[in-house]
Specification:
The complex is a heterodimer of chains A (about 300) and B (about 600).
Chain A: H1 6-22, E1 26-29, H2 34-47, E2 56-60, H3 66-79, E3 83-87, H4 88-93, H5 111-122, E4 126-128, E5 145-148, E6 176-179, H6 187-196, E7 208-215, E8 218-221, E9 233-239, E10 249-252, H7 258-266, H8 277-280, H9 285-291
Parallel strand pairs in A: 1-2, 1-4, 2-3, 4-6
Antiparallel strand pairs in A: 5-6, 7-8, 7-9, 8-10, 9-10
Helix pairs in contact in A: 1-2, 2-6, 6-7
Chain B: E1 4-10, H1 16-26, H2 32-44, H3 58-65, E2 72-77, E3 82-87, H4 94-103, E4 107-113, H5 120-131, E5 136-142, H6 151-165, E6 172-177, H7 201-207, E7 220-228, E8 234-239, E9 244-246, E10 250-254, E11 259-267, E12 270-272, E13 274-276, E14 280-285, E15 296-299, E16 305-316, E17 328-332, E18 335-348, E19 355-356, E20 366-379, E21 390-394, E22 401-407, H8 414-419, E23 425-430, H9 437-448, E24 453-457, H10 458-463, H11 473-492, E25 496-500, H12 506-514, E26 521-527, H13 530-536, H14 541-546, E27 568-571, H15 577-585
Parallel strand pairs in B: 1-3, 1-4, 4-5, 5-6, 23-25, 23-26, 24-25, 26-27
Antiparallel strand pairs in B: 2-3, 7-8, 7-15, 8-14, 9-13, 10-11, 10-15, 11-12, 11-14, 16-20, 16-22, 17-18, 17-21, 18-19, 18-20, 21-22
Helix pairs in contact in B: 4-5, 9-15, 11-12
Classes of the chains: A alpha/beta (about 300), B alpha/beta (about 600).
The structure holds guanosine-5'-diphosphate.
Guanosine-5'-diphosphate binds next to helix 1 of chain B.
Amino acid sequence: MPKFPQELEDEAIAVVREVAGQFSSPAVLFSGGKDSIALAWIVRKAFWPAPFPFPLVHIDTGHNFPETLEFRDHFGRELDAKLVVGSVQASIDSGRVSEETGPLASRNGLQTVTLLDTIAQHRFDACLGGARRDEEKARAKERFFSHRNSLGAWDPKNQRPELWGLVNAGKAPGEHFRVFPLSNFTELDVWLYLQREELALPSLYFSHQREVVEVNSTLLAASPYLKAGAAPQRKRVRFRTIGDMTCTGAVESEAHDLVEVIAELRAGAFSERSARFDDQRSEQAMEERKRVGYF
Amino acid sequence: MRILRLCTAGSVDDGKSTLIGRLLYETGSLPSDVIATVRRQSEKLGRHDLDLSLFTDGLRAEREQGITIDVAYRTFSTPRRRFLIADCPGHEQYTRNMVTGASGAELALLVVDVRHGLTTQTRRHAFLATLLGVPHLLVAVNKMDTVEYSQEAFEQLRQDFQDFASRLEARGLTFVPVSALHGDNLTQKSSRMPWYTGDHLLGLLETAYPGGTRNVVDFRFPVQTVLRDLRGERLYAGQVVSGRVKVGEALAVLPSGVKTTLKSIETYQSSQTRAEAGDSVALRLADQVDAGRGDMLVRVNNLPLASDTVDAYLVWLGETALKTSTRYALLHTTRQLSATIKKLRYRVDIDTMHREPAQRLVKNEIGRATLKLSGTLFFDSYRTNRFTGSFLLVDPVTHETVAAGLLRDRARAVEEHVTKARQGVVLWLTGLSGSGKTTLAHEIKRQAGREDVLILDGDQLRQGLCSDLGFSDEDRRENNRRAAHLAALAAEQGLLVIAALISPFAADRAFARSLVPAGRFLEVYLDCSLELCRSRDPKGLYRQVEAGEIPQFTGIDSVYEPPANPEIVLDTAAESPEVSARRVLNLGG
Ligand SMILES: Nc1nc2c(ncn2[C@@H]2O[C@H](COP(=O)(O)OP(=O)(O)O)[C@@H](O)[C@H]2O)c(=O)[nH]1
């Protein structure tokens, strides 16, 4: 059984402390998913015994799993963290974005605008995210500190070299940074870490009975928001990532706890993005979304 | 075991992507859907086997999509070890990329095409890796299948590379003949190269000695941020970048110089008695000193260098050329100062490694410069400490990172270290019995004129600490191991350690060296013929050997491996101990 490498936590803690040292208004992007839970926990540990220093920012598409929202509120209270919610529904209502149409309509893409508006409104200058380099080829080149211009966009040509852990946090007004303390974690590391730290997770991550709909060979949760697909079927499933209900794929599984999830994961299987319907729409999906300011 | 961080480099088409792809694939580090995708892509390209280079995506795809050519980080593991590869693209922007990748690497894997021999590109990679202090170079001589697995072709390349590398400060240099395409010697020994007796590439990576870039002696703790507990008491949060520390030790806060004691070392809801390089912790001090971000905690008896004028190599990364009129922001540890470049001393031609006079420095060039700072910098030379020996220069207007800097020790003589600075140094005297080690040790102590000197004399050790050991190879190794740890411990406390041990095996001396920061371990070889030693015979040992009373005596019936790269060789037949000692103390640092 592999062990979680302690040096990864040390590295992540050093990164979040650097954020506290160099930025005036940081925030933690919190989706309720396992990566952001691990991240928020690392922030907790990095600043103990001082109070949790940054607000948690959740972008609510309005199509979230109820389990996620419940967990979010509970976890936020436990950390004693301030919660900021950016609402995609509000962005739609105010005409900032318009809802996608068609059978594959998803609010995933709309989140970007709500996120950037939330960042601008609260003047966040550093947003911590739980992204990892192993998620995708395009992520392999991502920095710990990723510079975003005043439109929130990522310019791949304008990223700063990172050497010796030295952080150049200089920026013009209106610009901000995305910071990824878990860069060198793998998916397995995150699970091992959650296990070592004995952290609770939303129940969605463990095997449960659910009505699912198969869309392009991905199992999506049946919900009023999902228009496409065949007739719902009942299956024992769990989710490997948690996001918008309309684009987060489930896998059939009997894993009921972290030990069993880890065992399944080690048995080989699939990279977690493959369960993200949204990424399959284009091979270059991630790179493109990053350019416009996605998480 | 810690993660081994390595960087990889190679010229375009030498097979680096194929090689890394195969390592990832054969170690089972790739998810099945990724393999399936690459299988489809390979078929599209009309190949019936897997195109392994597609796993890391080589440059072709990136160029087509207009994605930046940049360092990519990938993790893979085997049951024995975990690896983090910084994959540095070989050509465009190679200096910037190679320097970035090498800055965190403990090993550089250089892929070369056996048919091309030692190219300019490979020389550049090797030079940059050693400049950045990467201690091991592992050269994968690829495409052996194209030369019918010829030993001659491999040996030719190895010879050329070694000749070239003798001009670099590469400590470890290993070669392995491979075919990335066919999998020879990558994760299994190839039967097609029976003449090669070494391990396969993965085996070499799994057993590579880690560290070497880690300074485990000099405690340095740059404060990142200050935390307050419920009572308002302050804790200093940061990462131990080098050395180690224990609760109760006397610490100094820099720049103020205020002294205090370490009261506790804390992590989430717990505390510990010691911390070492790499640990992210929070330190509570016995006195409420006024410290903050940018300050550095160090041990009172082990202070860094301090100066407002520094000498450094600059690797220029900025789009705009170096300007002597600009006041750059200088980022060093968690501290920020400003700096102007007082003088560009020379530029290094990366291809020839020659110094040439220069007026300016542009992107991807390397030069040596003198910088004038807005305050006193507390630093170590890059050679001894990557984290306190490095800095970045930032353009104050555009915020662009324009240069990476490697601090030099201002060519201080070791004598200064030894007599003035309170920094530990190990002088490791090696040579045959009777070559004059003990005499020299005492003469060095006398001339150094300081009290805190520890002489580790081989014979004395054997009478006490090591009296349980004999003279088999194993026991000699154990003897050496104890002496090495003792030397490192004492050096850590700031002592001048003079070890006078036969230490016949090169590997054992290398081990002793690995425990001490670079530049502070000086191997002193007393080169003296066996005949002379025997005729001197100060302790009558050779007579006893001849009388058959002592078996396994070094030089007689047990080997002595002379050092290949000692800091200094002394001919004790030709010069007096006084002169030898002076020469040792004058060694350039
Ligand atoms: N014959 C032979 N060809 C190889 C070997 N390794 C790589 N190649 C081929 O060399 C070309 C360049 O390989 P690639 O891995 O993309 O090189 P990179 O540019 O260094 O990443 C490809 O056509 C590979 O199939 C090898 O060991 N033998």
